[in-house]
Design a protein that fits this description.
alpha+beta; binds zinc ion
Length: 201
């Protein structure tokens, strides 16, 4: 947790998001020069009065560090802590505008919003459209995970989380077998994303 709590501490507010996804907007962080302040900021998401999760964002030179916890289907909590690079582009009317560079493997798109998910990534990555030329065993795991998501009636894309429940009419035993299979595939696919993310450190 080195550095958390140092610098300016802002509580940046609570917001609801559509489709159970947690959105992290760079505009909120860039406001009032916060990104340059080496500050720490905490976000909480809630929906219908229920807390959906929270995240700590720490600003540093050229990147922010995201710290939060995640878990799948009531499993063990995993501590997540990784940097997301920030890019700056000039504005029409002068000044600069900040962007996230999506931290998902093979992406790096310049985006204003990241979505979580076990891992925060851009909207495009929610469909996991990895280029087929660098498909690895782990990419295949992501695609197989998506196939299972379809069978489970969950929105496709491992970043969409897995708390979507059992589809109507599916036997409990079948459901849990598919969920266990899914969890293994997701861990595999996310492992590859985290490998990539950690190369920045
Ligand atoms: Zn992306």
């Amino acid at each position: 947790m080195g550095g958390i709590g140092s610098g300016t501490y802002l509580r940046c507010g609570t917001r609801s998001t559509i489709h159970d996804m947690r959105a992290l907007q760079i505009g909120k962080l860039a406001r009032n020069g916060w990104l340059e302040s080496n500050g720490t900021c905490s976000f909480a998401w809630s929906r219908a009065g229920q807390r959906m999760g929270d995240i700590m964002v720490r600003a540093a030179a050229g990147h922010v560090v995201l710290t939060y916890r995640t878990r799948t289907n009531g499993g063990d909590w995993r501590d997540m802590d990784y940097p997301v690079q920030i890019d700056w582009t000039p504005c029409h009317l002068g000044g600069t505008r900040a962007w996230f560079l999506c931290p998902a493997r093979g992406c790096g798109r310049r985006v204003a919003t990241l979505y979580g998910g076990a891992v925060f990534a851009c909207r495009h990555c929610h469909g996991l459209a990895y280029p087929s030329e660098n498909e690895s065993a782990r990419d295949r795991a992501a695609r197989r995970a998506d196939k299972l998501r379809e069978r489970l009636g969950w929105p496709v894309g491992i970043f969409n989380g897995s708390n979507w429940g059992r589809p109507k009419g599916m036997h409990r035993a079948t459901y849990w077998r598919l969920v266990r299979e899914y969890d293994a595939l997701e861990a595999h696919a996310l492992g590859s994303i985290m490998d990539w993310v950690h190369r920045f450190r």
